[in-house]
Design goal:
The longest helix is centred in the N-terminal third of the chain and has 11 residues. The chain has four helices and twelve strands; from the N terminus they run ββαβαββββαβαββββ. By secondary structure, it is an alpha/beta fold.
């Protein structure tokens, strides 16, 4: 179709929150889930976050794997993976000069737009075939609302918050018939957490 395959990653509590009421979010999922997410990063061509997440969390957006000689997937000793994906920041706000995305890792690209179609076009020009959208909620919602998400990786932790920031903001869905539906292709236990992998549904409305 000429645009990258899009995987959206979320990491939530059992009641659907990605951050507590005070904005804290480290860490909802455990080390095994985070290690698995890094292995996924090492397989994709690009990682995308919004400027809000960049400014709030200051992520490196690198793929890290256990250091040589360590067999445990969640080992604390890590190194940069051999393959580093393109680091993509989406939004109109600037990237601070001291931001960690300027450090070692993949090339940094700042796409100065909020338009999902334009983001995918820019990535296609760079021959990106698979992009991992890591958030936050504003960017996740934009990709879902645009119908651009092909696959969902939903990490769910056995944690309850009761309030805070949801994984997805309003999608304009007023009735269940208009829900964005996906089909589950895998459910895996990752440490104390669960990973649900689902793909775009071929029946009814899709996300």
């Amino acid at each position: 179709r000429g645009t990258p395959y899009v995987t959206l990653k979320t990491a939530t509590t059992l009641d659907g929150y990605v951050a507590a009421a005070d904005g804290t979010s480290r860490w909802i999922t455990g080390p095994a889930a985070r290690a698995h997410a890094h292995r996924v990063r090492a397989e994709v061509d690009a990682i995308a976050v919004g400027t809000g997440t960049l400014l709030a969390d200051d992520p490196e957006l690198t793929a890290r794997v256990p250091a040589h000689g360590s067999s445990h997937e969640a080992a604390s000793a890590v190194r940069l993976a051999e393959h580093q994906p393109l680091r993509v920041v989406v939004g109109l706000r600037g990237v601070p000069p001291a931001a960690r995305v300027h450090g070692k890792g993949g090339e940094l690209v700042h796409v100065l737009t909020r338009d999902v179609g334009e983001v995918l076009e820019r990535l296609a020009e760079r021959e990106v075939r698979h992009v991992l959208v890591e958030g936050g909620p504003t960017l996740a919602t934009a990709f879902l609302a645009a119908g651009a998400v092909d696959e969902l990786h939903a990490y769910v932790a056995p944690v309850l918050l009761g309030s805070g920031r949801r994984a997805v903001d309003g999608l304009g869905v007023a009735t269940i018939a208009d829900a964005h539906r996906f089909r589950t292709v895998e459910v895996r236990r990752v440490g104390d957490d669960a990973l649900v992998v689902s793909r775009k549904s071929t029946e009814g409305r899709v996300g």
